[in-house]
Structure formats: C-alpha cells, structure tokens
Amino acid sequence: KRSSNYLLWAQAVKIYIMAKKKLKFLNFDPPTPDASGYEDWMQENAVILIWLWNSMKLEIAANVMFHNTAKGVWDDFKDTYSQDKNMNRVYDLHDKMFHLRQSGKPLHDYYSTFKGLTEELNVFQPL
Fold this sequence. Notes:
Pfam families: Retrotran_gag_2. By secondary structure, the chain is mostly helical.
C-alpha cells in the first residue's frame, strides 16, 4: 500500500527544513570529499538525516536508514511514494471535486474541503 500521507509529510518537512535554511541538503548533492567544507556539510547533513528519520514511523525509516545523505532519503521517498504522474489519483481528485456537495455542512467546511482538493490537484497538474 502506498503511503497516503506522503504529500502532507513532504510539505511539512520541506517547510521545516526551509525554515532552518537547510533546503540545499534536500536539493543538491554533497560536495566531493576533498572539497573545502566537506566535513561541515556532512555534519549538517547528519542533523537533517536525523530530522527526517524522526519524522517517520520506524518501519518506514528502516527502509532509508542506510542512505548517507538527506537528498538520498528525500529522492528515495519521492520515487517510492510520490504520485507525481499518478493519473488514477488525478481522476479521483476530479471525481471528488465533481461530486462534492455542501449537503448541510457549514460553508467554510465545504470550501475548505474543496480548496484542499484543488491544492492537491495542483501538485499533480499545476495550472
């Protein structure tokens, strides 16, 4: 079964790491071992690996414990759990949006549900 909360998890983790000004560790490969600052980079990378592992269930973290870089974990999860090209999910989102009814719910609940569906759809099919 695919992890159903990957998108929420990835967004929360990305924002947290962005707030710490460490997003480069998810987006870029490490410097070469002979490069200046390599040890400092690896130390900061280790901290981010710990953040990532601590944000996961143990059985999921166990699958990525042997990556040496935060980018490796991030890319592995994106490949494994992301549904970037999942047309089934896109269809499901369109179907949910088409069949969404207020049905006695407060307007803000209806709008919030609709907005959440459109934001997820935007991940798969950006406007």
